[in-house]
Amino acid sequence: MADAEGIIESKEKDFGIGVPVETEGFYLKGMSHMDWGIKDRLRRMFNPKSGRTVMLAFDHGYIMGPTSGLERLDLNIVPLIPYADSLMCTKAALRNVVPPTSNKPICLRSSAGTTILNELNDEVVIDPEEAIRVNASTMAVMVSVGGQYEAKTIANLVKTADAGYRYGIPTMGVTAVGKELARDARYLSMASRVCAENGATIVKTYYCNEHFERVVNSCPVPIVVAGGKKLAEYDALTLCYKAISGGAAGLDMGRNVFQSESPKAMIQAINGVVHDNLNPDEAFELYNDVKSDLELK
Ligand code: 5RP
């Protein structure tokens, strides 16, 4: 029992009579009613000032092998880590390469893949204990809405999201795209909504040129946009700008960073778009300035 001596009698004013208790919401869409652990992990991933994230993706090897620009994660990726808000990778990349001193929130690739196109691994997801062991801030699961493996990949999402809510870890539903799946607003809004309604705390999907706002607005949770295949730097920054202007809460960029002529300059320019609302011209200027500075060193 606590020592009762020394407890000072409260005066009435100490109770804050008349001062309403603050009941603040949370700065990310649809997250106000989430548990403390989920919010804390989301806060680590999404900058509270801008409400957005620059996620550096280098999980490609789990289905593509040593992708161009990812031959040596220690040389290609580790120098970029300081410029990212969060890292999207496999548990192997974490254990093999990412320094535990990086202090970056991890979006852990939690579903398994195969190298055979359109053969998403059915009902294989990592044990949530593994996510806890590596201190993941989010578990990412691929979902193939409308694809051959829809039911099984949705089962993966539901299983992972349930475990995530049990342990306070958000789950990211990753909408798969394949040759047979369209990348238009109609498809992407359906796929994103299906992920959210099946438990995803965040959805990762693609940008589409027409009606992207509909994809964002019909999804009750934050949307993060994947970069996709390598584009010219200006075009990639334009895509980033349009996705953010359209309401995306962040970007998950891989090839357009690590395959860029100047990955360090590119990730800084993307940061400018995401957190400082730079337009494509301003961001491209920043890219060129940083690139030139780096070349002089
Ligand atoms: C690879 C992925 C990537 O995380 C995602 O697609 C982002 O990378 P990129 O910008 O290269 O598309 O899911 O399997």
TrEMBL record:
<dbReference type="InterPro" id="IPR002915">
    <property type="entry name" value="DeoC/FbaB/LacD_aldolase"/>
</dbReference>
<dbReference type="Pfam" id="PF01791">
    <property type="entry name" value="DeoC"/>
</dbReference>
<keyword id="KW-0456">Lyase</keyword>
<dbReference type="InterPro" id="IPR013785">
    <property type="entry name" value="Aldolase_TIM"/>
</dbReference>
<dbReference type="GO" id="GO:0004332">
    <property type="term" value="F:fructose-bisphosphate aldolase activity"/>
</dbReference>
<dbReference type="InterPro" id="IPR050456">
    <property type="entry name" value="DeoC/FbaB_aldolase"/>
</dbReference>
<protein>
    <submittedName>
        <fullName>Autoinducer-2 (AI-2) aldolase</fullName>
        <ecNumber>4.1.2.-</ecNumber>
    </submittedName>
</protein>
<dbReference type="InterPro" id="IPR041720">
    <property type="entry name" value="FbaB-like"/>
</dbReference>
